[in-house]
Amino acid sequence: MGNLFDLTGKTVVAIGGNSVLGASISKGLAEHGAQVAILGRNLEKANKVVKEIEESGGIAKAFAADVSSRESLEQAANEIEQWSGGWDVVLNAPGKNSTTPFFDLDMEEWDDIMDVNLKGVVVTCQIFAKKMIEQERKGSIINISSVSSTTPLSKVFTYSVSKAGVNSMTQYLAREFAPHGIRVNAIIPGFFPAEQNRKILSEERIESIMNHTPMNRFGEPDELQGAAVWLSSNKASSFVTGALIRVDGGFGSMTI
């Protein structure tokens, strides 16, 4: 069974790999043998993740990239290709949030969040999947979505809309890329407290979350690793594409 999840020889491009969830997933992929390119705007944070991976015996390298800039992503892709020759897995884990009420929302903020959460993922797929197709490399694209993508949460309007777009794009590209041997899936995390959502976790909101989470707790970042390793393996998930995989403690199964 261990061979099903062996990622030795594979290269992973982790967009947003310096974030809390992206870093944890990247570490899990490295522990299973993949070498990981950690991409982020904050190169210092990216290098910190690289150091942690290397200290655990893994292989990784940090690359500066702004997911809202095509030019920046193309430059990063060229640098990663020089480093590794190509890649087999693309992890899209960028994220930006805001608690601005709907009627106070201006288009500058809307564009800013959409550029990172949705447009950035589209451009990433255009750049990195195209190169995979050109090199005839079969592999996997894993998009990080959100529970708010299927049942919109209060106080995060733009974020919810952007992640709903990620789900739709995931299923569209699954069909588009299947003839090339590239699988496209999304992981839907439940509540994993991180920088971008702690500001909206009041005591009242936490109580509401727990009331709708059968497991009655928050998720731990390393609990996303299993799904990501599974989706990265062409052996373990060879017939899985267009799937939206919930890792949410049962949040999506609850109504009232």
Automatic annotation (TrEMBL):
<dbReference type="InterPro" id="IPR036291">
    <property type="entry name" value="NAD(P)-bd_dom_sf"/>
</dbReference>
<keyword id="KW-0560">Oxidoreductase</keyword>
<protein>
    <submittedName>
        <fullName>SDR family oxidoreductase</fullName>
    </submittedName>
</protein>
<dbReference type="InterPro" id="IPR002347">
    <property type="entry name" value="SDR_fam"/>
</dbReference>
<dbReference type="GO" id="GO:0016616">
    <property type="term" value="F:oxidoreductase activity, acting on the CH-OH group of donors, NAD or NADP as acceptor"/>
</dbReference>
<dbReference type="Pfam" id="PF13561">
    <property type="entry name" value="adh_short_C2"/>
</dbReference>
<comment type="similarity">
    <text>Belongs to the short-chain dehydrogenases/reductases (SDR) family.</text>
</comment>
<dbReference type="GO" id="GO:0005975">
    <property type="term" value="P:carbohydrate metabolic process"/>
</dbReference>
